[in-house]
Design a protein that fits this description.
The structure is a homodimer. By secondary structure, chain A is of the alpha/beta class. In chain A, helix 1 crosses helix 2, helix 3 crosses helix 10 and helix 7 crosses helix 8. In chain A, the strands form three sheets. A five-stranded mixed β-sheet of chain A has the order 3-2-1-4-8. Chain A has a five-stranded mixed β-sheet with strand order 11-10-9-12-13, with helices on both faces. Helices cover 40% and strands 22% of the residues of chain A. The first copy, chain A, is built from ten helices and 13 strands. Chain A has two domains: 133 residues, Nucleotidyltransferase, domain 5 (2-Layer Sandwich), CATH 3.30.420; 171 residues, ATPase, nucleotide binding domain (Nucleotidyltransferase, domain 5, 2-Layer Sandwich). The first copy, chain A, is globular, with a radius of gyration of 20 Å.
Chain lengths: 327, 327
């Protein structure tokens, strides 16, 4: 009889902490979600431990042995030490999360960047299934990246590689969250699209676009996309600009990695129809021909809100040594 | 008695074709150099075969068995097929150079990009000796790159990865040789420095800088650097600009690869003293802190004009299976 083992995977983000109990082959057994308690380091860690403990209890009820825990954390991670160096969105610095989890839960734990575990899941179960080299781009409020080389995550010397949101594509351009100017993230993320829309609204106070702002002065990208699809010229222009920037970033990654696939995921892919034409123009202009012709740019094939947590559970499976390793 | 074996390495560039006969541990036994005969595809190949045959004859005289041939070629290479897809500087397209060499010389041949073999040499014998992950940047008339991951060259899916000269760092910026705008190469190469100097000379026709132009209208980077060191403000400003762009490109690569080392080589490193301060400013602004703190930016430790050919000979050694492979 096969051993009934499973892993716990967690996705720790700025707003929520999701967890799954996963059997091999991506079979979801249980799920759990809480708001990330952002008030302090202790509250964030407390939330993580809570989710793990609840999922462990359910595993026991189901007769499953939990072999390991994987965590995808929104921040800079020293993977080999399981250390959260710091998080831009949470009050966390120098947190030895691997040690904390292993001590409290008495099982192996592995901590990686959230964008990395998403890329791993895409590589095994999604649009990167059949390829050796893949660049995975998460287009959301920010831009995250994961790079798969020879079917393995590439992490660099301490684990902070693939910070593709912070490659500068327009030196001296708009200020990024990170403090630099002209980052890919500052030009093509959901936040960048909203910023451009707000600038256009301010410059054209009587335009239909200006009326899309809510009471707090925000401008929702989904609303903006509806306006663009109805032909609003200001809204359309913003997507053309962001689309071109998206293409510049993708072309840079094609020139660097010559990957078989570039996979786009995240909320901004919902408006990809508005971005795609100019994105392709930039890729054609910038990506060198042999690399361009050997790459396909596709969207994620993974569905569901637990993708990050499932990727983290997959990481734990592969690193625990308790599951068959894919070729 | 140890078998006395050696490899032949060739560096085929736009102006010259260099060859070496190399024993293990980088012991140079013979060298050969001819101008690259650029008139036709046949003349380029003829030159390559000539150099190989002359070096083979010398090997025989020395009692050495040639185990394999390696070629570093200035162009886009499909490494697995040993195919020169095309060369920007030579009349070559779709040349199955590996097949041609193996047929004519009856020994294994390996063909790679010239920047890749230079990176390989640096990884084994130079500034990258002790590290797993390294980015090698050749700063000359253009900007070439080679990426070492886990001590091996990273080539991507068909072999055209690491085209780091053509990552766009300033979208819409100056026109690059490749047809795109704002490439790293168009902002920080020797050619870019000369272009900026010529623009400054045109804008300031009575300046000392304007008098540095030769009769053909060229402006030598070495002369420009002397003017800058003597305090010429226009000349200094050009190096400040190019230095910043160099830092942007390096920071992007640090964010992507989190390498232990970034190694700078090529002619432009002769003026690195003028570029370095602003380069470091850009790196500090753009490279994320954990990656920046785990990377050292250094210059090449390899000397001599045959570095490229020695790298190609090393490639042949490692791939021939006839020499002990380094750990």
């Amino acid at each position: 009889m096969e051993p009934k083992i499973a892993t716990i995977g967690l996705d720790v983000g700025g707003t929520k902490t999701s967890g799954v109990l996963l059997s091999p082959e991506d079979v979801l057994r249980e799920r759990e979600r809480i708001p990330t308690k952002r008030s302090s380091r202790e509250s964030v860690v407390g939330g993580i431990l809570d989710v793990c403990e609840r999922l462990s209890e359910r595993a026991e009820v189901l007769g499953l042995e939990v072999a390991a825990i994987g965590v995808g954390f929104a921040g800079f991670i020293d993977f080999s030490q399981g250390l959260v160096i710091y998080s831009p969105n949470l009050p966390i610095e120098d947190l030895r999360l691997k040690d904390v989890l292993e001590e409290r839960l008495s099982m192996p734990a592995f901590v990686d960047n959230d964008a990395n575990v998403a890329a791993l899941a895409e590589s095994r179960w999604g649009a990167g299934r059949s390829v050796e080299h893949m660049v995975h781009i998460t287009l959301g409020t920010g831009i995250g990246g994961g790079v798969i080389i020879d079917r393995q995550l590439y992490r660099g010397c301490i684990g902070t590689a693939a910070e593709i949101g912070h490659i500068v594509i327009s030196a001296g351009g708009p200020l990024c969250f990170c403090g630099a100017r002209g980052c890919f993230e500052a030009m093509a993320s959901g936040t960048a699209i909203e910023r451009m829309a707000l600038e256009a609204a301010t410059a054209n106070p009587d335009s239909p676009l200006a009326r899309l702002r809510d009471r707090k002065g925000h401008l929702d990208v989904q609303l903006l996309s509806e306006a663009a699809r109805e032909g609003d010229p200001l809204a359309l222009d913003i997507f053309l600009q962001a689309g071109y920037s998206l293409g510049v970033g993708i072309a840079n990654l094609i020139n660097i990695f010559n990957p078989e696939r570039v996979v786009l995921s995240g909320g901004v892919t919902n408006v990809l129809d508005l971005l795609e034409e100019r994105m392709q123009v930039a890729v054609k202009e910038i990506a060198v021909k042999p690399s361009r012709e050997s790459t396909r740019i596709v969207t994620s094939e993974l569905q569901g809100e637990e993708v990050g947590a499932r990727g983290a559970a997959l990481l734990a499976m592969e690193l625990s040594g308790r599951f068959p390793v894919p070729e």
